Amino acid sequence: MGEIGRSIPRVDAKDKVCGTAKYTEDLCPAYALTAKIYHAAIANGWVERIDIDDALAVPGVEAVFTCMDVPQLPFATAGHPWSTDPGHRDVADRLLLNRRVRCYGDDIAVVVATDEVAADRGLRAIRVEYREEPVAVTPEQAMEMAAQGGEPLHEAYADNILGRSQYQEGEWPADTEELTAAKGSYVCQAVQHCHLESAVSFAWQEGEKITVVSSTQIPHIVRRVVGQALGLPWSRIRVIKPYIGGGFGNKQDVLTEPLNAWLAQKLPGRTVKLCLSREEVFSATRIRHPITIDIETLADQQGNLVARSYNAVSCQGAYASHGHGIAANGMTAFRDMYRQSQALRQQALTVYCNVPAAGAMRGYGIPQETFATEANMDDLALALAMDPLELRRKNMMLPGFKDPVTGITCHSSGLEECLRKGEALIDWQAKRQAYAKQSGPLRRGVGMALFCYKTGVYPLSLETSSARMVLNQDGSAQLHLGATEIGQGGDTVFAQMAAEACGMRTEDIRVVSFQDTDVAPYDSGAYASRQTYVTGMAIQKTARLFGERLTGYAAGLCGMAPENLRVQGQHVVKQEDGQPVISLEELAQEAFYSLENSVHISAQTTNHCRSNTFAFGCSFVEIQVDMPLGQIRVLQAINLHDSGKLINPALAEAQVHGGMSMALGYGLSERMIFHPQSGKLLNGNLLDYKLATALDTPDLQAVFVETQDPTGPFGNKALGEPPALSLAPALRNALLHATGVKINSLPLEPQRLTAAFREAGLLEGGEDHV
Amino acid sequence: MGEIGRSIPRVDAKDKVCGTAKYTEDLCPAYALTAKIYHAAIANGWVERIDIDDALAVPGVEAVFTCMDVPQLPFATAGHPWSTDPGHRDVADRLLLNRRVRCYGDDIAVVVATDEVAADRGLRAIRVEYREEPVAVTPEQAMEMAAQGGEPLHEAYADNILGRSQYQEGEWPADTEELTAAKGSYVCQAVQHCHLESAVSFAWQEGEKITVVSSTQIPHIVRRVVGQALGLPWSRIRVIKPYIGGGFGNKQDVLTEPLNAWLAQKLPGRTVKLCLSREEVFSATRIRHPITIDIETLADQQGNLVARSYNAVSCQGAYASHGHGIAANGMTAFRDMYRQSQALRQQALTVYCNVPAAGAMRGYGIPQETFATEANMDDLALALAMDPLELRRKNMMLPGFKDPVTGITCHSSGLEECLRKGEALIDWQAKRQAYAKQSGPLRRGVGMALFCYKTGVYPLSLETSSARMVLNQDGSAQLHLGATEIGQGGDTVFAQMAAEACGMRTEDIRVVSFQDTDVAPYDSGAYASRQTYVTGMAIQKTARLFGERLTGYAAGLCGMAPENLRVQGQHVVKQEDGQPVISLEELAQEAFYSLENSVHISAQTTNHCRSNTFAFGCSFVEIQVDMPLGQIRVLQAINLHDSGKLINPALAEAQVHGGMSMALGYGLSERMIFHPQSGKLLNGNLLDYKLATALDTPDLQAVFVETQDPTGPFGNKALGEPPALSLAPALRNALLHATGVKINSLPLEPQRLTAAFREAGLLEGGEDHV
Question: pTM for this one?
Answer without folding.
Answer: 0.97
